[in-house]
Design a protein that fits this description.
The chain is an all-alpha fold. It has one helix and no strands. The termini are far apart.
Length: about 110
């Protein structure tokens, strides 16, 4: 059961193309034409892939950051439940052995 639904991420990308063939192949541009100065010389499909990759990388970075924050927050309770409990039991067994140990106190010889 999901508590919320993820909305699909939308990437708005405006791809000006002079011809449909420019979707798959790089256009041959006149380097001296002023109206084509801002035109991207890569194929449109390559621009689409790069835009989607940037959107996915942002989501991955956010996800990794949240995972790191979650581990930092949860480390102290996990440490208490697992490791500190183990150390406490180990110390408790050592103290019980010391308590049940038969000791004899003798003076040092030669004094």
């Amino acid at each position: 059961m999901r508590l919320w639904r993820r909305r699909p991420r939308e990437v708005d990308l405006y791809l000006p193309m002079m011809r449909i063939e420019h979707l798959f192949e790089a256009p041959r541009l006149d380097p001296f034409a002023p109206e084509l100065a801002a035109y991207d010389p890569r194929p449109a499909l390559e621009r689409i892939v790069r835009a989607v990759q940037r959107a996915v990388q942002r989501a991955d970075a956010l996800s990794t950051g949240l995972q790191t924050v979650a581990w930092v927050i949860l480390w102290f309770p996990i440490n208490l439940l697992i490791y500190d409990r183990w150390y406490y039991r180990r110390d408790q067994r050592a103290y019980e052995k010391l308590r049940d140990l038969a000791l004899t106190v003798r003076p040092q010889e030669g004094t």
